[in-house]
Write a structure and sequence with these properties.
This protein is mostly helical. The protein contains 22 helices and two strands.
């Protein structure tokens, strides 16, 4: 990396960091309490958001640290790894002696600015001009919806940083090189990105491994065969792919994959009052048809229940595919139950889409795929932009997301030309495959558009950036002539 590019990166980091800090201060001290008090949940937090509760718990956690010291600090104290915003904010409150949300702003700004540099690095590997790459940063840096985490208290900023770092590792992995430094950088970004994402959302590691492993194996076999054909370049073509494949496989025990298949079979969810399990079939929450009452799962009676006519006739029971491995079928069922669990935990959310869709087999998931792609990349749809919400805050958020989606649609048009421009670039297709796969899985499991919008943000804005690159190349080739 030349000195001029390093200076550009530092300048971009400084500008994004300063901008995030400024916007966050304006939001917490002026916009919410003074101009939009009806949206203010207190202490600069948005009313109705998770940040209000996170702040309250973080203050209590800081008090605990003050009594017991740093040795009692843990990244997460909950059984399901969902309290990272509390423990991180609590640590900052304790370290600074300030029990106010604005104390977290510099921390959040660092991760948003650092992610911008990672994205800049990604785009600069596909274009030669920094100005075009900088333009591609626009959606990630400028979309107002990102204020939900960098100007509040949440874990999404760190999670997105991990995902984008892993995406960068995919590109580094495919660059042919025998230099030791390049091998270390590729492996380190792969490991660090996956671990950071896992530390914020435990299940994300299983998604990363499940998506990356097939692609890595395919690339490894293809490049190995091609190198043998050429009788040269075997190590530089396959070395980093093999290294990254080894790393993500080595991380597999952290996923506690047995938990997912077992959980899908037993569905032990204390928050799902209407879920009962008969043998290996999860009777899911209430639907249009009444559930057939069943007994709680009992391993000692599973043989009898397996042949029970009650189970066979139950329209809500999960139907095994018969052609998929049992573990894979259990993982798909897990995704199905997670979707239904979302309805149960958030029954009054007002931004559901396809609320009547419930998956009862792997084939149901397969046939929903075209719709999932549509929802994952085009929702919220224009019909939702100006619709009324359960409160004023929800309506304002819909207007903001509508403006962002209008820009996103234009970027996705430019993506069409990117397919042509980068058609021979395997790194582009690997990144696109990873992003569309992650978004697809989130769409299957999260029926709430508000939550989906936040979960897909990292992968979504990466692809929008490529759309901008495609539009810039189209403009340069055809319009300027």
């Amino acid at each position: 990396m030349d000195k001029e590019l390093k200076k550009s990166y530092l300048l971009i980091f400084g500008c994004v960091y300063a901008g995030v800090v400024l916007v966050s201060i304006v939001l917490q001290f002026l916009l919410l309490p003074k101009i939009l008090p009806h949206l203010h949940g207190g202490d600069g937090m948005l009313s109705g958001s998770d940040s209000v509760e996170f702040h309250r718990k973080a203050v209590l956690y800081a008090d605990k640290l003050e009594k017991k010291g740093w040795s009692s600090w843990r990244l997460d104290t909950g059984p399901k790894m969902s309290q990272q915003p509390v423990t991180i904010a609590g640590a900052i409150y304790f370290a600074t002696g300030i029990r106010e949300p604005w104390a977290v702003i510099p921390f959040n700004a660092f991760f948003h600015a650092a992610t911008s540099i990672l994205l800049m690095n990604i785009y600069m590997r596909f274009v030669s001009k920094a100005k075009i790459a900088l333009l591609a940063l626009g959606p990630f840096v400028l979309f107002p919806s990102a204020m939900a985490w960098y100007a509040q208290i949440h874990r999404d900023g760190i999670y997105i940083f991990g995902i984008v770092l892993f995406v960068l590792s995919l590109i580094l992995m495919l660059e042919k090189s025998c230099r030791k430094r390049d091998f270390i950088l590729s492996g380190l970004t792969c490991f660090t990105g996956a671990m950071i994402a896992w530390s914020m959302r435990q299940y994300s590691l299983l998604l990363v491994i499940g998506i990356a492993c097939p692609a890595f194996l395919f690339l490894l076999i293809y490049r190995f065969a091609y190198a043998l054909k050429l009788k040269r370049g075997l190590f530089e073509s396959t070395g980093k792919i093999f290294l990254n494949l080894f790393i993500i496989i080595a991380l597999f025990p952290l996923t506690d994959a047995g938990h997912f298949s077992g959980w899908a079979s037993n569905v032990k969810m204390e928050n799902m009052k209407n879920v009962k399990v008969i043998e290996d079939k999860a009777i899911l929450p209430k639907s249009e048809k009444p559930l057939i009452p069943g007994k709680e799962f009992s391993p000692q009676k599973d043989d009898k229940l397996a042949d029970s006519p009650e189970v066979e006739k139950d329209p809500n029971a999960w139907q095994k595919s018969g052609f998929l491995p049992s573990k894979l079928d259990s993982v798909i069922k897990y995704a199905s139950v997670r979707r239904d669990m979302f309805y149960e935990i958030h029954p009054v959310a007002d931004s559901y889409l396809d609320r009547n869709v419930h998956f009862r087999s792997a084939l149901d998931v397969f046939f929903y795929t075209p719709r999932a792609i549509q929802v994952g990349w085009l929702a919220p749809f224009p019909s939702m932009w100006f619709s009324s919400g359960k409160n004023l805050a929800s309506e304002k958020q819909r207007l903001i997301s509508g403006a962002e989606m209008a820009i996103a649609y234009l970027c996705l048009v430019g993506l069409i030309y990117s397919f042509y421009c980068f058609r021979k670039n395997s790194a582009f297709w690997l990144v696109f495959y990873f992003c569309i796969s992650m978004t697809y899985i989130f769409t299957i499991t999260i029926p709430n558009i508000g939550s989906l919008y936040r979960m897909r943000y990292g992968c979504f804005t990466i692809v929008l950036g490529f759309g901008i690159l495609g539009a810039a190349k189209f403009f340069k080739r055809f319009v300027r002539k």
